[in-house]
Specification:
By secondary structure, this protein is of the alpha/beta class. The chain has 9 helices and 10 strands.
């Protein structure tokens, strides 16, 4: 399997298979949302679109980066979301990088959204599909965010015929990243210091997450390798 690691601005073609990585925090939060019972996560184009979706469907739950804001129910923090009951709910998520990355590759035949908490399930799904090439979208820092690149490289290694890969160096890189420092010190609004540890829980969940267009919306759902969507 050939792996490409690209930032969002570097995406100049439509990949066949894309893995969109946002460790701190979009796709750690999405995984927690599924664990708390969410049926699906809708990836919104903008804050205005998220609010418009909520206005048409009052039962949906809206989630954003940064401080709480009128019309939004949750913030993009695993620590602040992990005790929320989302049973059967649709969550509308808009973040600075993670949702943007997924929407940028929405025409790919398979779009997976990943972080360390779903790393092994994501790698297993890639091994099952056995694509010739995978584009890893490193969403943070225009492709230079160390936590996202470390996670992408780790998943790529595990997806390559199940090679044994020591996760420790990748987790250390992520834990020493600028994003981790900002979360620990409270620089980022709408976060908690516990977010770092939660984002670095390797393989916390047994599922992967696949996104696809449904009725004009980019919808993220949890999948196991056996449930992988067809090419």
């Amino acid at each position: 399997m050939r792996a490409r690691f690209l930032g969002i601005p570097e995406l100049t073609d439509v990949p066949d298979v894309a893995v969109v990585v946002d460790v701190m925090r979009a796709y750690t939060v999405a995984a927690w949302a599924f664990t708390r019972g969410a049926e699906r996560v809708v990836l919104a184009e903008s804050l205005e679109d998220a609010l418009a979706l909520k206005a048409r469907r009052p039962g949906w739950v809206t989630l954003k980066d940064g401080s709480p804001a009128p019309g939004f129910d949750l913030v993009n923090s695993p620590a602040l979301l992990r005790d929320t009951d989302l049973a059967g709910r649709t969550v509308v998520q808009k973040t600075t990088a993670g949702t943007v990355g997924a929407l940028a590759v929405k025409d790919a035949s398979l779009v997976l959204c990943a972080s360390f908490v779903v790393a092994e399930a994501t790698a297993r799904l890639l091994r099952q599909r056995a694509p010739r090439e995978v584009t890893f979208v490193v969403t943070g820092g225009d492709g230079r965010a160390e936590e996202d690149l470390a996670c992408a490289e780790y998943i790529a290694g595990r997806a390559d015929d199940g090679d044994v890969v020591d996760a420790a160096p990748y987790l250390r890189r992520a834990g020493a990243s600028r994003a981790a420092d900002e979360l620990r010190t409270g620089v980022r609004d709408g976060s908690a210091p516990e977010d770092v540890a939660l984002c670095l829980e390797l393989d916390r969940f047994p599922f992967a997450m696949a996104a696809a267009v449904e009725d004009s919306l980019m919808v993220l759902r949890q999948v196991t390798p056996a449930d992988a969507p067809p090419a």
